Amino acid sequence: xxxxxxxxxxxxxxxxxxxxxxxxxxxxxxxxxxxxxxxxxxxxxxxxxxxxxxxxxxxxxxxxxxxxxxxxxxxxxxxxxxxxxxxxxxxxxxxxxxxxxxxxxxxxxxxxxxxxxxxxxxxxxxxxxxxxxxxxxxxxxxxxxxxxxxxxxxxxxxxxxxxxxxxxxxxxxxxxxxxxxxxxxxx
Length: 187
Known about the structure:
Mean pLDDT: 78
Largest sheet: 6 strands, mixed
Number of domains: 2
Order of helices and strands: HHHEEEEHHEE
Strand order of the largest sheet: 2-1-5-6-4-3
């Protein structure tokens, strides 16, 4: 009787949505499940609770055009974050061009009345003008290059540092100051 009921309901449901202009997500899947032949256990009950992996959320699957993102545009946690590669490329390029060692330890810095709640630079370079002064190296890539301008709080923070307002932080328990900021663009 279950198959007959499904055979009768499935086509009726399909016909009822023929003229509906709105896409109802999941309705076709429900209709297909009703009309598909199901295996039965010994008592003739449909085995509907068995998971076969076929109804997973497609938007969570990897996006072949954007590594590190799923089809819904979210970071998928696979460890492949393309912006990390750009950061590494930018810091390597900065170090080679300037003949310096770039410290890649992340340390938050801030100053009184800053336009944001502190700042963490992609890299730090030890300055020769004081015992604990550093240059903050910020790598910008993609659309972040265009967004980095006078209305951007990171830009405002960096401009204040470059104008003489040192940002203070701690690295490995030792107080230090960022007195300059350099931006490295990686297209």
